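Q: Entry one of two.
A:
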Amino acid sequence: MTSQSVPAAAADPVPADAEPAPRPANSVVAAVTLAGLTLAWLALLIWSVLATLAASTDGVLAVTETAYGLPAVIFAALLAGAGVGQAVRRVTARRLDATVLPRLLVAVVAGALTGAVAAAAVVFGDGRGGSAVTILGWALFAGALVGGTLTGLHRSAGLLTAAGAAAGLAVAVAVTVRELAKGPLLELFGAGQTAASVLAAQSRIVWVSALLAGAIAGVVAFGWLAGASRRATTRLPWPAYLVAGAAPGALLLVAELITRVGGAELLGLARSFSETDEAFQSMADAGRINSALVVLFAGAFTALICLGRTLPGRPDPDDPAGPAGPAVPDDPAVPDDPAVPDDPADPADSVRAG
């Protein structure tokens, strides 16, 4: 009786929306580290806002400074909410990450708690109260809540949002360095004694710094996803790198939306002091939108370039030697017969010879 081989059982298909399963220890450490960095950045910005408010004796100046720094603080709250949400998801992944509702609930609670602590730090840290501080507190809460919620919308959303948060943190640092070096940069980009030359130099600085920040964001996002892919020993599809590279710019746009909606009263108050304040706020609003779009496209493009550099190249069809391919094993079902020549003659020839 001829024995028949039993085919091996097919492996269970992997769901299309499944997030790679990194090694637990490494993924938790990476997520907790990111959460700590984003919280430290948010705390630094809150401290800066509180120091500015404490040093300001003029109510008009305090409102103007708060309105100018509001988008940056909300962006930091978004990053902190996303970082904390992903860290909590990683810690509770084995028990609560398998179904939609518990995963989303954990992400929302993590973002809400982060926002509540940040808002309390601003409101109680200032001590004087007022509408500007209250609006800032609510905006911080909203930013962190949205950032945390984003990590629980989809199984793969946590990893992509974490990569975007890491890249967004790099963007925030780059923008801060630009602001600290604004004086020398204005001279470098051609600012003169006239207001027109100063505005033109500022526009050049915004465009160039946004391109550089987007490139940095793309590299950081690619590095985060590549590390997660190595830990999970799986290859992520290329759209994941596109989304992660574009995520910092998208988060900047979300922060701008929260600023326009949640801080509308504060922005309106800052515009109402004079025509100069009105023009300054309008220019700042347009500049933030343009910068966010540049960061979005530059980050996505850079992440794809980094991914393409890691892919294996195709063999050259014009190369006569060609790459040495893997050896093809002999078919065990057809044993070698030494009596059969390598190039057997046609059977018809044998008949005619006979």
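Q: Entry two of two.
A:
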Amino acid sequence: MRRRTLLATAGAAVPATLLLAVDEALAGPLVPSGTQAPLDGRLANARALFDAGRHAALLGLLPELLGDAHEAARSRQDLDHARLSSCYALASQVLIKLGRHGRARLTADRATTYAELSGSPLATAAAARELSIVLRHQDQPAAAQRLILQAAAGVESTGLATAPQRAAYAQMLCTTSYTAARAGDRTQALAMVEEARRAARSLPEQPPRGRLFPLTPAAVDLYAVGVHWALGDSGAALQSGKGLRASQFPTAERRGRMHTDLARAWWQWGKPAETARELLAALRVCPGEVRDRPAIQEIVTVLSSRHPHTAGVRALARSVARP
């Protein structure tokens, strides 16, 4: 009951009015804003808000962004369908982050539909990835794994001749690995993360600005932390992450995620002080990664209850307390 109660409050760290506005927009009909600002620039700005962990600000933009993207897609041009798919995929990302999995399923489904209309293998892969993540959260691991494997095969069929295609393929392998790990398939999880490492070797340490899949070799190592954690091997998770540094990740969201993933591994190992240290580090670089994610909030709640006198725990509790 306690876990269900905690999960039911998912998204409570952002104003309920923003979540309601997104819900109403998704229920339709979506109304264009009438602005003349270029849609590509607005989508880039929305992505930047996600990368900064500014979830409330992003939610505030989504209804008009989706409305304008739908209006543009009336052209029935492939590029406009791909752009609309990207808008829905971004909506899925933030809704998943906030634990709003029901609505994320809807936006991921729509992202998939418009990606298929666009004919873009990379847009299709991005949408499939978001849908597979939602399915995983909805306890449908077999369906999630089938979908992401199909997406990986679709990207591989492009020939991987360009860096964006190779980055997309490595990203699909990372997601496949983590999905397998959450399903308890150790053999596939470990095989896929090693394949992802091989696929990412040619990728730059810092991804070009605006790349759809900004994967790097360090990002694959961060996935390995999550894979080992999901398999219940906190020691291997921490070993995978021992060489990671915040400077290797270009966005606040990824830097925060590095710290929260390490915190989960320390917590799994039963090390409250180290857990608190990593969560405080995450708060410094990206507060939304701690305050807005239900799974991390649950760790903070239990940590504060069981280890109130451990170094860093009181500071952590104060930092995430809502007024």
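A: Comment on entry two: The two ends are 25 Å apart (CA to CA). DSSP finds 17 helices and no strands in the chain.
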